[in-house]
Each structure stands twice: as structure tokens, then as C-alpha cells.
Write a structure and sequence with these properties.
The structure is a single chain. 24% of the residues are buried. The radius of gyration is 46 Å and the shape is flat. The protein is α+β, with helices and mostly antiparallel strands and 619 residues long. It has four domains: 243 residues, 2-Layer Sandwich (Beta-Lactamase); 81 residues, Beta-Lactamase (2-Layer Sandwich), CATH 3.30.450.20; 113 residues, Orthogonal Bundle (Helix Hairpins), CATH 1.10.287.130; 166 residues, 2-Layer Sandwich (Heat Shock Protein 90). The two termini are 70 Å apart. Helix content is 51%, strand content 20%.
Length: 619
Amino acid sequence: MSLAGTGLPRISFQFRLFLSFLVLIFCFLPAVGISGFIQWRKSLEEQIEYHSLNTAFQIAEQVKTYLAKHSESTLMIKEAFEADLIDPNDRGELLKFFLSLKKIYPYFVNINYGDEKGYFLMVPPQRPEIHKLFDPRVRPWYTGAMKERGLYWTEVYIFASSQRPGITVSSPILDTQGRPFAVSSIDIDLFTLSRFLKKVKVGQHGYAFIMENDTGRIIAHPELPELYENPSEINRLTKSISALRHSKKEFGATFDRGRKFFTAYVDYAQNNWTIGVTLPASDFMGNLGKVKQASITIIIGAVFLASLMSYLLMRTVARPLKELRKGFETISQGDLDHEVIVRDRGIIGSLAKSFNRMSQSLKKSREELERTYRTLAEKEKMAALGQLTAGIAHEIRNPLAIMLSSAQVVVNEAKPAHMRREAGLFIIEEIKRLNKTLDDFLAFARPAKSNLSDCNLIDLLDGIVESMQGQFEAAGVEVVKKIMAQPPLCRADCNQMRQVFINLILNAVHAMPHGGRLTIRCSEKSPGTWTSSKRIKLQPMADADCYLEVAVSDTGVGIPPEDVDKIFEPFFSTKDGGTGLGLAIVYQILKIHQAGIAVSTEPGLGSTFTVLFPCFFRR
């Protein structure tokens, strides 16, 4: 059978299903295999990085511990002289002291002493002519300690006694007036550090090394004498460290003559050294090729088996699936009473029976959900009614208590006449306050229907500010208006908007008990440009032509952060004598008008209430 108008053979559902399985298999299985191989390789490199850096850090700590013995002993010699435990003029006592110290620390290469007169002593003792002809005052360990007036580490130099490279730690010795007159020092042979590094195991062919930063010279290496005969290896190490420093990394891969190396380093700031660890990538990656080959073999085998299984699955599943699809389409249209009938005794038949049970369960769940929704709606109404009732009871209870106590005074003829008169006035005031509370509640609970008309909110604001001028002067409030000249007209109930602005302005005045500045700003805003820094409590409608933004700012006490999210709730108030319904009514009116409101406040500095009103007509 051909496709209409094309002459092409019709592709069967079974073939399309089989083709889909093949595409999925050939895309998914290789992707999983390659992804697993990449993740394994990444994990291996992370392990190499951790091992290399950890080794470098451990070496740095051991070098620090090793060198600390030399610096501590140098300071001990200094303190022994300055405490007069050793007489610098008694050469025999001085030699005996140094020999005993050398016996305690046999790994000290040389212990030196030189004074300002040129006297020099070294342990182990050298030939007499060396002690007589050698002038310590020109040696780096002497001049450096005298200059620093404290513990001093030399750079690498060649020892005169052994003609081998090393470093020296030295310290000046002070007389009773605090003037340096001699220097004691201890030599460290760098071959000792090299022997220590030779014991550190780094992979199969890796090693650790120490480099002097100022000169770029390798000063410690497991094969230090032979290293100087291999300048290409020295060049590789210095280039590796330089490349890592340039890229601001402590670990990375470098290449030299076609070979890949992993290198890590840490800084040893005390002596301005770099402690590095390097190893060829082949130490860790040697089995990578075998793993890759095995992964490819597994993927090919898995693709073949999956293809065969998908073909068998297609033949077994495709025909009953057609019958299932017809039933599913009927049920998906909402007919949960429909029953899927499949003539198959295998898994497809069981699936059809399970689907029929599921559809019946869905039907019951939908009915139960509808009942639950109706019940929750009733409970929500009752909860809201309870909250309002509690608020009303709270607002009425206090005036009633005052009225009761005042009435008791009025009927008590034994009380003075002026006291009974004052009690009567209290009753009148509380009745007025109670009446206002009930009026506010009715305005909130049963808002008047909005009578929309073209409204100029700017003219409305001007009239409100003019009528309240006396209140502003009495409260010591300065009013600043920043209003645009040609505002857009809005569709609004002018009386309700007047109520909104009066509430916001009165709240601002009450927030400044000692006077302050009230600022009213009015500007036109384009859709989507409302500032995101304000705390938006009600979003305006999104499809207006433009918006009119009215901001009422005060320099009052501000709103505590914990109260900002409650100020629009009914009966919440921070003012003495307030009903807590003013801002709730503002919120309700703005919501009816599809307008928005936001609050920004800072305790002690003031608050700003910003109204964003949708407009559709321009003057």
C-alpha cells in the first residue's frame, strides 16, 4: 500500500518501533560508555592531583621540621652567650660546647662562630691554618645576620670547607648594651635534603624536588649530582613550575618532547623555595588504553544484544500496543468509564487490566478530590470568619471595658460630680471609637461597588494635600510635592482612591511624631519598568498602556523588618488606638482596581509606600 500522492510504501508501526529502538540504542549506549570513560579519566586525574599536592605539602612540613632544629639550635647558642653561660673569650669552653651540641645533633654539617675581631671557630674542627686565615666577617651568614639583627637564612652558596652547595642559618649575639659583637651559625648541606627526597615515593618514576625561586636553580633532587649533567631535565622542571604559576594553578599537565607529565607545587615562603612533585602521566595512564579498548568491546556487544532484544520485543509488543493505544486515547479524553480490552494473555493483557483498574481508581480519586475541595473551601471560609470575629472581639472588648468602668463611676452618686462628668465623656469617646471601628470593618468586609470613571489622580492628590494643610502645620510636617505636569487619566473610583491616599498620608504623618518631611512623588512608568528594589506586596495588571506611580515617603520611625509582611493584614496595627484596618482597606481597594503597591522602609529613617496604577487613556 502506498502513501497518498507519493507512491512511497507505507512504513508499518512495527518497523517504526524497531527503528526507534535502534536509534535509541545506538545513541544512548555509546554515550553512556563514553561518558563513563570520561568520568573515570577525570576521577583518575583528580586522584593524581590530590596525591601530588598532598605529597608536596607533607614534604614541606617535613622540611620545615628538619630546618626548625637548626634555627632553634642557633637561637639556643645565641641565648647561651647572652645569658653568660658561655665565655666567648674562653676558646676551650667554646669548642667543648660546640662539640657537645654536634654530638647531640650529628646531622648538623658545621657549627660556626665568628666575632667582630675576626676570630673564627668551626665544629667539626678544620685545619689550624683555616681557622687562622679564614675571616668570618666577609661570609654571607655573618654579614646577613649583622644586617638583619635577627635570625637569618642565607641563599644557596658553596661551603668553603667542603666545596658543596648549602645554606646557613645564623643569628647575631648581643652584648649587655644590646650591640652585636659576634654571630653563631649552623650549616645545612643540601645533599642531606636530596637524600631525604630520594626516600619519598611518587608513583613509579616520579620524584620531588626543591627549587630556589630567585635563581630558578634546583637545590634538592633525588639525583642532584647527576641532575647537573642533564640540563634538559632542569629546563623541564623550571618551565613546568613557571607555566603553572603563570596560569595560577598548583597542579597541571605539561609536555616535554612528546611526553606528558603531571606536576604539582607548593610555596615554602620561609626560604623563598618551591617544593615540587612531578611524575610521567604513563605511571597512572598506562592502563588507560586497555580500559578504553575494553569499553569499546563492551559497548559493541551491548549494542548487538540490545538490538536483538528490541527486535523480539517489537514483535511481541507492537500488535497488542495498537489495541492499548485506542483505549488510552478514549480514556485520555476524560471518559474514565471506558474499559480497555486487549486479547493478550501476556504482559500487555496484564497491563490493560492494570490500566482499567487505574482508570476506576482515578474516577474514585476525582470524586473524592471534589468532595475534599468542597470541604476545604468551607473550612477556609470558617477560618477566615473566625479570624475576623476574633479581630472584632479584640477591638470591641477594650472600649467595652472602659465604658463599663466609666459607667460604674457615673452611677456611683458618692463620686464627685466632675469625676462622674469625665467618666461620661470617656463613655462618649469610646462609643465614637467603637462606631469608627465598626464603620472600618464594614468598609473592609463589605466594600462599596466601584464606580469607575475618568479620574485625574494628580488633581485628587492636590485637593487632599490642600485640605490637610492644617494637620500638617499642627504636626510640624513639611510637605514636598514632585508631581508631573501632564499625568495620564486613569479609570478609577475617585472616592475610593481618595480614601487610599488619605490613609497613606495620615499613616506617614503619624509615623513622624516629632515632625519631619512628607514627600509625594508622581511619575509615569512604562510597562515592565517598576523598580525591583521595593518590596512588592501587590502586583498590578500587566497589559496596561502605561502606569502612574505615586510614592508617599516620610522621614519617620520606619517599620520594623519583622512587621513589614503583616501591615496589610486586618486588625494589625502598631499605633495606639489604631483599628488595624486602614492598610487592609487600601490593599482591598487597589486589588479591585488591579493596581499594585510596594513598601520600602528603614527603621529610624522612614518609609515609602508606592502605588502603581494602570492607565489606558492619555490627556
